[in-house]
Amino acid sequence: MAKTPLFSLFHTISLISLLLIIQSPLATSHTLNPLPITLSVTDFGASGDGLRYDTAAIQSTIDACPDAGPCRVTFPAPGNYLTATVFLKSGVVLNVEPGATVLGGTRLEDYPKESSRWYVVLAENAMNVGIGGGGTVDGQAGKFVVREDPRKNVMVSWNQTGACSGDECRPRLIGFVGCNHVEVSNITLNHPAYWCLHMVRSNNIRIEDVGIYGDFNIPNNDGIDIEDSNNTIINRCHIDTGDDAICPKSSTSPVYNLTATNSWIRTKSSAIKLGSASWFDFKHFLFDNITILDSHRGLAFQIRDGGNVSDIIFSNINISTRYYDPLWWGRAEPIYVTTCPRDESSKEASISNILFINITANAENGIFLSGSKRGLLRNLRFINMNVTYRRFTSYKGGLWDYRPGCQGLVKHNTAGMMMEHIDGLEVKNVEMRWSNEQEQPEQWNNPLEFRPSTVNNVNFVNFNSGFYTNSKPSL
Ligand SMILES: *[C@@H]1O[C@H](CO)[C@@H](O)[C@H](O)[C@H]1NC(C)=O
Ligand SMILES: *[C@@H]1O[C@H](CO)[C@@H](O)[C@H](O)[C@H]1NC(C)=O
Ligand SMILES: *[C@@H]1O[C@H](CO)[C@@H](O)[C@H](O)[C@H]1NC(C)=O
Ligand SMILES: *[C@@H]1O[C@H](CO)[C@@H](O)[C@H](O)[C@H]1NC(C)=O
Ligand SMILES: *[C@@H]1O[C@H](CO)[C@@H](O)[C@H](O)[C@H]1NC(C)=O
Ligand SMILES: *[C@@H]1O[C@H](CO)[C@@H](O)[C@H](O)[C@H]1NC(C)=O
Ligand SMILES: *[C@@H]1O[C@H](CO)[C@@H](O)[C@H](O)[C@H]1NC(C)=O
Ligand SMILES: *[C@@H]1O[C@H](CO)[C@@H](O)[C@H](O)[C@H]1NC(C)=O
Ligand SMILES: *[C@@H]1O[C@H](CO)[C@@H](O)[C@H](O)[C@H]1NC(C)=O
């Protein structure tokens, strides 16, 4: 069942790429050879010594590729290729060999004038582009830390130009903007200074065998941000970072058809988060076989701006969530489904047809399901779940978290499942276990809390809630 959309998407993409391979030589009559030509940045003068800027050599290599490619630009190992922004063009795939690293520059003048184009590697309006090869791209985030702080590091801000504000004024690592047929595979992305991998207004994206190692204490260190883009496959990724790990956003157009499978996530914020930029719809997503460890929030919808969400499946997911410093968004909820207007000018939006199936969760806080008056949660289903609640950190609980905007943080006892403004809720084969260890920082064991008169069409089948003891360990 869960496999159907995944495979049809794979099929669609491989068929399309097959057609491209067959058609492009005829269409462009550049070459009869569909194999890419390979150019090495060292042949164009790159030093790879990590001290001198190799920007000109790297860019010349890319520019030497035939128009529309296919062309592979190789970064030989060993080597550390320090560079200002590298601009990809159609048909070019960067091939960073195992043992080679592309090092992002740390000076403002290494990046284009407009802050929206601050990336170490950037492709704009290109086709058949990508990066891979088994090597590493490193954003040198450590050099952007002004002061280490055990709660959250204080970062450099390049806002002196007025281009952007506050501490969100740092370069991202890799961006594909307005691209078609993007492949990021077999690459390690280390220490981004800000967001890591950003897809914007792009189509037909494959992100596979990618390791993302951000800094657990650097704010806005997102893993993968899929913005205004369609037909994305994320597979076999390992994401260990400070901020949201997989984060679809809609700012100028909707996000359709996103599949993320066989992946591992640890984050100090949300592992999977839809929003909070949510002006347009999110539709037809599948998240399957994902492990989420020690994160501040597991599966999250943070819908605030009027875009409606529908047809989302989460299957075979193992989640553990815990509290961290409250400076970081998240309140240890394993599942967090919220839609509310960000502010007075925001439209209300609904979240419909959401299935959670085969979910294991060990968490310090309950499941939070909150629609709003004219933006309901409709047809939510929770099937085959084992949820275990145990408090073990000493951070204070007892807060409902509506941030950003809406009602903000509200003091309230927490429950195993908190529900408001829902039409259609099915809970089937769900086992909720509670720790009653005496040393717990807070005792709480209210399994279900309904906001009166806002939750309708409810169906509980085989729902159990009870204590577990040490002789009956957590699931
Ligand atoms: C990644 O690339 C390296 C070097 O080409 C190769 O040896 C390795 O098999 C690739 N791994 C995957 C998962 O494709
Ligand atoms: C830049 O950001 C810093 C830190 O957030 C802030 O104190 C300062 O006022 C900002 N300056 C400008 C010009 O935006
Ligand atoms: C994604 O699909 C929607 C719906 O067809 C469309 O409006 C939008 O322009 C598409 N986005 C891209 C980047 O192709
Ligand atoms: C989403 O995927 C379906 C196939 O599963 C396809 O028919 C549809 O065109 C895709 N939507 C967009 C916007 O590409
Ligand atoms: C689930 O994903 C893991 C990688 O995180 C992989 O090792 C495992 O084989 C996958 N399981 C299935 C059933 O595909
Ligand atoms: C969300 O759905 C509502 C109700 O159908 C509709 O009025 C609104 O325009 C939708 N939002 C968007 C961004 O399409
Ligand atoms: C879930 O992950 C935890 C580690 O966080 C592991 O101990 C447990 O065995 C896993 N459970 C399942 C059902 O995979
Ligand atoms: C929940 O635990 C039971 C054993 O008590 C097990 O049979 C079942 O497979 C588990 N379900 C999930 C989704 O982990
Ligand atoms: C849920 O788990 C059961 C038992 O492990 C399995 O048979 C079923 O295919 C799973 N469902 C989905 C949607 O993956």
Describe what is shown at a glance.
Keywords: Cell wall, Glycosidase, Hydrolase, Secreted, Signal. By secondary structure, the protein is mainly β.
Architecture of the largest domain, according to CATH? 3 Solenoid
What is the CATH topology descriptor of the largest domain?
Pectate Lyase C-like
At the first level of CATH, the class of the largest domain is: Mainly Beta
From the alpha carbons, calculate the radius of gyration and give it in angstroms: 23 Å
Task: Decide which structural class fits the backbone.
Answer: mainly beta
Question: CATH superfamily of the largest domain, please?
Answer: Single-stranded right-handed beta-helix, Pectin lyase-like
Strands, count:
35
Bound molecules: 2-acetamido-2-deoxy-beta-D-glucopyranose
List the uncertain runs: 1-31
Shape: elongated
Name the helicity range: under 10%
Q: What distance separates the N and C termini? A: 25 Å
Q: How large is the share of residues in beta strands?
A: over 45%
Give a quick account of the main beta sheet: strands, pairing sense, barrel closure: 19 strands, parallel
Number of helices: 2
Subcellular location: Secreted, Cell wall
Main location: secreted
Family: Belongs to the glycosyl hydrolase 28 family.
InterPro entries: GH28_Enzymes, Glyco_hydro_28, Pectin_lyas_fold, Pectin_lyase_fold/virulence
